[in-house]
Amino acid sequence: LALGRRNLVLVGFMGSGKSSLGRMAARRLHRPFVDTDAWVESRSGQSVADIFRRQGEAAFRRLEAEAVAAAAARRRLVVATGGGALRDPLNLRRLRQGGVLVALQAEPEVLLARAGRLPGVRPLLDVPDPLGRVRELLAERAELYRQADLHLDTTHLGLQEALEALLALVGEGSAGATRPR
Ligand code: S3P
Protein backbone atom coordinates (compact mmCIF):
# COMPACT_ATOMS: atom_id res chain seq x y z
CA LEU A 1 0.00 0.00 0.00
CA ALA A 2 1.16 3.51 -0.75
CA LEU A 3 -1.08 6.52 -0.54
CA GLY A 4 -0.78 7.84 -4.06
CA ARG A 5 -3.16 10.79 -4.27
CA ARG A 6 -5.36 9.48 -1.50
CA ASN A 7 -5.77 11.34 1.76
CA LEU A 8 -4.22 9.89 4.88
CA VAL A 9 -7.12 10.05 7.35
CA LEU A 10 -6.54 9.56 11.05
CA VAL A 11 -9.47 8.39 13.14
CA GLY A 12 -9.70 7.20 16.72
CA PHE A 13 -10.50 8.27 20.23
CA MET A 14 -9.65 11.57 21.91
CA GLY A 15 -6.02 11.48 23.01
CA SER A 16 -5.03 8.78 20.52
CA GLY A 17 -2.65 11.23 18.81
CA LYS A 18 -4.54 12.16 15.64
CA SER A 19 -3.68 15.86 15.67
CA SER A 20 -0.06 15.57 16.83
CA LEU A 21 0.77 12.68 14.51
CA GLY A 22 -1.26 14.16 11.68
CA ARG A 23 0.71 17.38 11.78
CA MET A 24 4.02 15.48 11.88
CA ALA A 25 3.02 13.11 9.08
CA ALA A 26 1.90 16.02 6.90
CA ARG A 27 5.27 17.69 7.28
CA ARG A 28 7.10 14.47 6.37
CA LEU A 29 4.88 13.73 3.39
CA HIS A 30 4.83 17.34 2.16
CA ARG A 31 1.08 17.40 2.31
CA PRO A 32 -1.33 19.98 3.70
CA PHE A 33 -2.75 19.11 7.11
CA VAL A 34 -6.45 19.51 7.86
CA ASP A 35 -7.81 19.03 11.37
CA THR A 36 -11.61 18.89 11.32
CA ASP A 37 -11.93 20.32 14.86
CA ALA A 38 -9.74 23.28 13.89
CA TRP A 39 -11.75 23.73 10.67
CA VAL A 40 -14.96 23.88 12.73
CA GLU A 41 -13.41 26.38 15.12
CA SER A 42 -12.22 28.72 12.42
CA ARG A 43 -15.47 28.37 10.47
CA SER A 44 -17.64 29.15 13.50
CA GLY A 45 -15.28 31.51 15.31
CA GLN A 46 -15.79 29.50 18.51
CA SER A 47 -13.94 26.78 20.33
CA VAL A 48 -15.34 23.24 20.17
CA ALA A 49 -16.09 23.46 23.91
CA ASP A 50 -18.05 26.71 23.40
CA ILE A 51 -20.08 25.22 20.56
CA PHE A 52 -21.01 22.24 22.78
CA ARG A 53 -21.93 24.59 25.63
CA ARG A 54 -23.85 27.23 23.68
CA GLN A 55 -25.41 25.33 20.79
CA GLY A 56 -25.19 21.72 21.88
CA GLU A 57 -23.53 18.63 20.47
CA ALA A 58 -25.91 18.34 17.51
CA ALA A 59 -24.80 21.75 16.22
CA PHE A 60 -21.18 20.67 16.54
CA ARG A 61 -21.88 17.45 14.61
CA ARG A 62 -23.41 19.44 11.74
CA LEU A 63 -20.31 21.62 11.49
CA GLU A 64 -18.10 18.55 11.77
CA ALA A 65 -19.93 16.93 8.85
CA GLU A 66 -19.25 20.06 6.76
CA ALA A 67 -15.57 19.88 7.70
CA VAL A 68 -15.43 16.21 6.71
CA ALA A 69 -17.13 16.88 3.39
CA ALA A 70 -14.71 19.71 2.62
CA ALA A 71 -11.65 17.59 3.45
CA ALA A 72 -12.94 14.49 1.66
CA ALA A 73 -13.45 16.49 -1.52
CA ARG A 74 -9.71 17.14 -1.69
CA ARG A 75 -6.75 14.80 -2.30
CA ARG A 76 -3.20 14.46 -1.02
CA LEU A 77 -4.10 15.71 2.45
CA VAL A 78 -3.38 14.43 5.88
CA VAL A 79 -6.65 14.68 7.81
CA ALA A 80 -7.15 14.44 11.56
CA THR A 81 -10.79 13.87 12.47
CA GLY A 82 -12.54 14.38 15.80
CA GLY A 83 -13.01 11.24 17.89
CA GLY A 84 -16.74 11.13 17.15
CA ALA A 85 -16.62 11.85 13.43
CA LEU A 86 -17.40 8.27 12.36
CA ARG A 87 -20.67 8.20 14.29
CA ASP A 88 -22.23 9.63 11.14
CA PRO A 89 -22.13 6.92 8.45
CA LEU A 90 -22.08 9.58 5.75
CA ASN A 91 -18.80 10.90 7.19
CA LEU A 92 -17.32 7.41 7.04
CA ARG A 93 -18.40 6.95 3.45
CA ARG A 94 -17.00 10.32 2.40
CA LEU A 95 -13.67 9.80 4.14
CA ARG A 96 -13.22 6.33 2.68
CA GLN A 97 -13.91 7.49 -0.83
CA GLY A 98 -10.57 9.13 -1.50
CA GLY A 99 -8.67 8.24 1.62
CA VAL A 100 -6.88 5.55 3.57
CA LEU A 101 -8.25 5.42 7.12
CA VAL A 102 -5.88 4.65 9.95
CA ALA A 103 -7.38 4.13 13.40
CA LEU A 104 -5.06 5.11 16.23
CA GLN A 105 -5.62 3.14 19.41
CA ALA A 106 -4.36 3.22 22.97
CA GLU A 107 -5.37 1.90 26.36
CA PRO A 108 -8.03 3.92 28.19
CA GLU A 109 -5.68 5.22 30.91
CA VAL A 110 -3.26 6.46 28.26
CA LEU A 111 -6.01 8.09 26.22
CA LEU A 112 -7.27 9.93 29.27
CA ALA A 113 -3.78 11.04 30.32
CA ARG A 114 -3.14 12.46 26.86
CA ALA A 115 -6.60 13.94 26.32
CA GLY A 116 -6.74 15.42 29.79
CA ARG A 117 -3.62 17.45 29.17
CA LEU A 118 -5.69 20.33 27.84
CA PRO A 119 -8.31 21.06 30.49
CA GLY A 120 -11.68 22.40 29.32
CA VAL A 121 -11.02 21.42 25.71
CA ARG A 122 -12.89 18.10 25.65
CA PRO A 123 -16.46 18.63 26.80
CA LEU A 124 -17.29 14.91 26.62
CA LEU A 125 -14.71 14.16 29.30
CA ASP A 126 -15.78 17.00 31.59
CA VAL A 127 -17.54 14.59 33.96
CA PRO A 128 -16.91 13.32 37.51
CA ASP A 129 -15.56 9.95 36.33
CA PRO A 130 -13.69 10.64 33.09
CA LEU A 131 -11.98 7.22 32.97
CA GLY A 132 -15.36 5.51 33.23
CA ARG A 133 -16.56 7.77 30.45
CA VAL A 134 -13.59 6.88 28.26
CA ARG A 135 -14.32 3.17 28.73
CA GLU A 136 -18.01 3.66 27.97
CA LEU A 137 -17.40 5.69 24.81
CA LEU A 138 -14.69 3.29 23.65
CA ALA A 139 -17.10 0.38 23.99
CA GLU A 140 -19.74 2.31 22.05
CA ARG A 141 -17.31 3.26 19.31
CA ALA A 142 -15.14 0.16 18.95
CA GLU A 143 -17.31 -0.94 16.04
CA LEU A 144 -16.80 2.39 14.25
CA TYR A 145 -13.03 2.47 14.59
CA ARG A 146 -12.86 -1.15 13.43
CA GLN A 147 -14.01 0.00 10.03
CA ALA A 148 -10.73 1.80 9.36
CA ASP A 149 -8.40 0.22 6.78
CA LEU A 150 -5.44 0.02 9.15
CA HIS A 151 -4.92 0.09 12.92
CA LEU A 152 -2.04 1.33 15.02
CA ASP A 153 -1.73 0.95 18.78
CA THR A 154 0.29 3.85 20.19
CA THR A 155 0.02 2.87 23.87
CA HIS A 156 3.72 2.14 24.18
CA LEU A 157 5.02 4.49 21.51
CA GLY A 158 6.44 7.97 21.83
CA LEU A 159 5.38 10.50 19.18
CA GLN A 160 8.43 9.99 17.00
CA GLU A 161 8.13 6.19 17.15
CA ALA A 162 4.44 6.42 16.42
CA LEU A 163 5.15 8.61 13.40
CA GLU A 164 7.60 6.09 11.94
CA ALA A 165 5.16 3.25 12.60
CA LEU A 166 2.36 5.19 10.94
CA LEU A 167 4.39 6.01 7.83
CA ALA A 168 5.56 2.40 7.53
CA LEU A 169 1.99 1.17 7.90
CA VAL A 170 0.77 3.24 4.95
CA GLY A 171 3.78 2.35 2.82
CA GLU A 172 5.41 5.75 3.16
CA GLY A 173 8.24 4.73 5.48
CA SER A 174 11.84 6.00 5.25
CA ALA A 175 12.29 4.58 1.73
CA GLY A 176 9.04 6.21 0.69
CA ALA A 177 10.04 9.52 2.22
CA THR A 178 13.01 9.94 -0.08
CA ARG A 179 11.41 8.47 -3.17
CA PRO A 180 11.04 11.16 -5.85
CA ARG A 181 7.42 12.01 -6.56
C1 S3P B 1 -15.09 14.36 20.25
C2 S3P B 1 -13.73 14.47 20.06
C3 S3P B 1 -13.05 15.78 19.94
C4 S3P B 1 -14.01 16.85 19.40
C5 S3P B 1 -15.26 16.88 20.26
C6 S3P B 1 -15.99 15.54 20.29
C7 S3P B 1 -15.68 13.01 20.37
O1 S3P B 1 -11.95 15.65 19.02
O2 S3P B 1 -14.34 16.60 18.08
O3 S3P B 1 -14.88 17.28 21.55
O4 S3P B 1 -16.91 12.86 20.18
O5 S3P B 1 -14.91 12.04 20.63
P1 S3P B 1 -10.55 14.92 19.41
O6 S3P B 1 -10.73 13.46 19.18
O7 S3P B 1 -9.58 15.53 18.45
O8 S3P B 1 -10.27 15.27 20.83
What does this structure look like?
The structure is a single chain. This protein is globular. A 5-stranded parallel sheet has the order 2-3-1-4-5. It has helices spanning 18-29, 36-44, 48-55, 57-72, 89-97, 108-115, 130-145, 159-169, 174-178; strands at residues 7-12, 33-35, 78-80, 99-105, 150-153. The relative contact order is 0.21. With 181 residues, it is α/β, with parallel strands linked by helices. The protein is built from 9 helices and 5 strands, in the order E-H-E-H-H-H-E-H-E-H-H-E-H-H. The model has no long low-confidence stretch (mean pLDDT 94). Shikimate-3-phosphate (S3P) binds next to helix 1.
Which key phrases capture this entry?
181 residues; binds shikimate-3-phosphate; 9 helices; single chain; five-stranded parallel β-sheet; alpha/beta
Question: How are the SSEs ordered, and which strands pair?
Answer:
Blueprint: E1 7-12, H1 18-29, E2 33-35, H2 36-44, H3 48-55, H4 57-72, E3 78-80, H5 89-97, E4 99-105, H6 108-115, H7 130-145, E5 150-153, H8 159-169, H9 174-178
Parallel strand pairs: 1-3, 1-4, 2-3, 4-5
This protein binds shikimate-3-phosphate.
Shikimate-3-phosphate is lined by residues 14, 18-19, 37, 48, 82-84, 122-124.
Please indicate the percent range of residues in DSSP E strands (runs of 2 or more): 5-15%
Helix/strand/pairing category: alpha/beta
Rg, Å, rounded: 16 Å
Helix content, binned percent = 40-55%
Q: What is the global morphology?
A: globular
User: Could you tell me how far the N terminus lies from the C terminus, measured between alpha carbons in angstroms?
Assistant: 16 Å
The largest pleated sheet is described as: 5 strands, parallel
Count of DSSP-assigned helices:
9
Spatial sequence of strands, sheet with the most strands = 2-3-1-4-5
Compressed to H and E, one letter per element, the order equals: EHEHHHEHEHHEHH
**What is the number of E strands?**
5
Cofactors and ligands present? shikimate-3-phosphate
Identify low-pLDDT runs.
none
The averaged pLDDT comes out at: 94
